[in-house]
Amino acid sequence: MPVVERRRQTHGLRVLDLLSMIGAIIASLAFTTLLTTQWAPINGPLPFFLIAYVAFVVFYTVLVSLDERSPAVLDRIVAVAIHSLAATVVIALIFVVGFTAIRGAEALPYLSFFTEDMSLAGPLDPLSEGGVLHAIAGSLIQISIALAVTIPLGVLTALFLTEVPGKYARFVRTIVEAMTALPSIVAGLFIFATFILVFGLQKSGMAAALAISVMMLPIMIRAADVVFRLVPHTLREASIGLGAGQWRTVWHVVLPTSRSGLTTAIILATARGIGETSPVLLTSGFTAALNTDPLNGPMVSLPLAVFQFVKSPEPNMIARGFGTAVVLLMLVLILFVIARIIGGQTVAKRDARRRRVARILAPIAPVARRTVRLVRVAAHRVLIAVGYRLAVVVDDVRSRRTARAATRTVPGSTRNSQKEPS
Question: In 271-420, which ranges are E strands?
Fold first, then answer.
């Protein structure tokens, strides 16, 4: 008699899986507690958690193998591993953000923290005095200059690597991949040794922005290169088949198609550059006052301000440091949201939004067209009246000038005629 294979559920959560998971958790906790308290002198939450996790995987595998075959058991084990890694990342992110927010909560309620600099505040002053306005402005100015340098160079280099393949392109790709692992302190030393010592550029926001650009450029090139290579070749072939050249195809086909991916590349490069401290420490100098001129004088960024604040032994300065870190996290989050909104505007979404707006405006469309027609007629009549009035005024001015010129020339001619002998 042939064996009928039971149909397996490939999605969703079954009751049996939930019970197996709960049983594995209870068994792993009981086993770990017994092990750490009776059998082995193991103390600390981290060893307890690691032993409990390994025991959970073992017990869960045994429970699942009682009801499933080996492919399903392997699938459950891989699912547990993947979900565990994802949960670890999320928990680590929540811990970092939460710990920073809790430590910086003392400084954040004060409005002066966002609207003042530290030029008139010292380490012993209360949190109601002084702020990080100079660091916020410095970070925005430096990252703006760095993006102005990085985006054109990164996109053009990625286009070169994608559209002009060859030995030199492979050499450039190798250099870019090697620069990805470049330590940030080396980038700061490069700018310090060349632009500051050799070319005489003073420590300023421009020097810091150049150092940040060195760190952002390989990330931008690699991400943009991957995005351009994901564009289907059929789109390029269709454009060239219609008579467009290579660079016209790049401008009208490749770049619009990969706009969302380029936005992601810019986000990755910005996240790499906005949190750099070592290059800024070597190239920007430090000041407690607000400086918006990137070419003259030191300029402080948010990471550098955090570094300077937390070095102080005073609790208020440490609280300012954690508050500055929270501001940096908020700034990165805002930039990320703006970039995702811009990058998420695909052609289909724009068409759908246009149709939705047209559907909403459909009931008032006749009235709007009639109103626009009346406004156009009224504006045309007003323009005609104004033009006619201007013509009358200009004609009147010309006639007055002519009459004035005539009255000046007639008496002179009469005197000249009287001097002639009869």
Answer: none
